[in-house]
Amino acid sequence: MATDVSSSPMPQLQSVQKAMALPTVGAAVGQVGAFYTKVKGAHSLLEWALSTAEAGVVRAANTAAPYVAAPLAAGDARVAAVLDELERRVPLVAEPPKVIVETTRQAVMSRISPHVNKVYTAREAAEQRVHSLKELSWAKANALLSTAYGQKAVHSVDMGATYAMQLLDHYLPPVGPQEEPGNELVAASSEPALHTAQTVGRLTAVAARRVWANLAYKVNELRNSGVELDVRRYITALLAALHLANVTSQQQQQEQEQTGAPPQAAAEPAPAPPAPSKHAPASAPTTATQLKTTPEFKSTETSN
């Protein structure tokens, strides 16, 4: 770069000359050399350091040249042969960088284009199939809703939507300026399926807007009255209450385990002997009973 190559006793390498002859390598080396020169001239200290390094490299190369001449020549010949073979097999490497980039892009596009075309063709076919299925389903739905039972179903949907709108007007009246969906609905006689879809969609949109509008209105009323709704504080208090209840139940369980099991109930009295049954057979008469029935006992009792 800043060193004069012609004054150096180093032999000229054929492989380096062949590589520098390639436009791509020459352009890359030129870009690197320009950047190196720019960095070197940015500051005097950098210029001195890089110049010193260059001088050291040149001195080391000159010193080692006699010892590495033979191996270097053999390696140079092999690299030169490889470069010649590369130029023979890939002539594109000898072209300028712009030609290489354009040729590579065309080659890649020629390889990718058939696959891309297949993907686009498949996507178009799928879209057409979906569109045809959608039209077929829509036509079948219209045909089904055009029957007598279908017309009754459409009429029921309309009546239900009307009743639902009345309930919304009663319980969730419009608050403030709201853009209500238009009433431009397709006639049920011409497109019953589309008419049903529009009716349900309109009812859903009105309900969603009414709910959020009334909720926002109530929240603003609470804020205006001095009640601040802090969701985070509410959740924190709820979690604290749950934690307190859990800790209390654990303490109660520990106290029960420490005091032991509750005292056993008093022993129940022994059951009374069963009363003699009326139908039980009479037991044998005792000796006293037999004596009372004798004539002597009766005469004695009479005299007394």
TrEMBL record:
- Ranges of compositional bias, category Polar residues: 291-304
Superkingdom of the source? Eukaryota
Q: Which keywords does the record carry?
A: Lipid droplet
- UniProt-listed Pfam families: Perilipin
- Where does this protein have coiled-coil stretches? none
- InterPro entries of this UniProt entry? Perilipin (IPR004279)
GO terms classed as biological process: lipid storage; positive regulation of triglyceride storage
Q: Which organism is it from?
A: Trichoplusia ni (Cabbage looper)
Stretches with biased composition (Low complexity): 249-269, 277-290
Q: Which GO terms describe its cellular component?
A: cytosol; lipid droplet
Of which family is this protein a member? Belongs to the perilipin family.
What residue spans carry the region label Disordered?
A: 249-304
What protein does this entry describe?
A: Lipid storage droplets surface-binding protein 2 isoform X1
Give the chief site where it resides: other
**Subcellular location(s) of the protein:** Lipid droplet
